[in-house]
Structures are given as C-alpha cells and as structure tokens.
Write a structure and sequence with these properties.
This protein has 124 residues and is mostly helical. The protein is built from one helix and no strands. The chain is rod-shaped, with a radius of gyration of 53 Å.
C-alpha cells in the first residue's frame, strides 16, 4: 500500500523562518558587540602607542640634554685639569727657586762663618 504524500505544514514553515530570523539577529548582535569591543580595544591600543611615543620622545630629549650637559662638564673638567697642572708647575717652580735660595743662603752663611773664623784668628 502506498502512503499518501505529506504536505508541508504551512505553520511550521513560519516557525522555522522566525527561528532563522532569531538566530540571524543573535549572530548580528554578537558581531556588532564584537566590533564595538574591537574598536574600543583598537582605540585603547592606539592611545597606549601614542603615550609610549610621547614618553620615548621625552626620554630621547632628556638623553640629548644629559649628553649636552655631560659634554659641557667634560670641557669644564678639562679646563680645570689644565689650570691645576699650570698651578702645580708654578708651585714646583717656586719650590725650586726656594731650594736655590736656601742653598745660596747656606753658602753665604758658610762663607760668613769662615770669614768670622779668620777674623777671630787674626785678632788672636
């Protein structure tokens, strides 16, 4: 025996259509939420990158300033070292002159002492 063909239930087709529309709407809402979160995340990362670039620029400028200051300090140090060497040489020169003067004074004292001894001998 043959079974009669079943005809589709028109009311079940409407239910399936409503269900598919609900699934589509839910997917669309999830996608929109994902896109919103993605844009927020992208904005956050963009802000972080901009802040890092500003900090990097500041640090680069600070480094350049410090290198300039270091160069200036090195020049001052070199100048001070040259002045110190000059003063040191002047001190050595003065010490040498004093040593010569002391030697001359000793020599003169010895000569005077000899003359004094000679005079004493002559008087005796």
């Amino acid at each position: 025996r043959r079974q009669p063909r079943s005809t589709p239930n028109p009311s079940s087709a409407g239910v399936r259509c409503v269900q598919e529309t609900d699934v589509y709407s839910e997917s669309e809402n999830k996608f929109k939420l994902f896109m919103t979160e993605l844009q927020a995340s992208e904005k956050k990362w963009k802000t972080l990158v901009e802040n890092n670039e500003k900090i990097l620029a500041e640090r680069t400028q600070e480094k350049a300033d410090l290198l300039t200051q270091m160069g200036e300090l090195e020049m001052k140090l070199d100048k001070m070292q040259r002045e110190l060497r000059t003063k040191d040489n002047e001190i050595k020169s003065i010490k040498n002159m004093h040593a010569i003067e002391i030697a001359n004074i000793k020599h003169l004292n010895e000569a005077l002492l000899k003359e004094k001894m000679l005079l004493i001998e002559e008087q005796n």
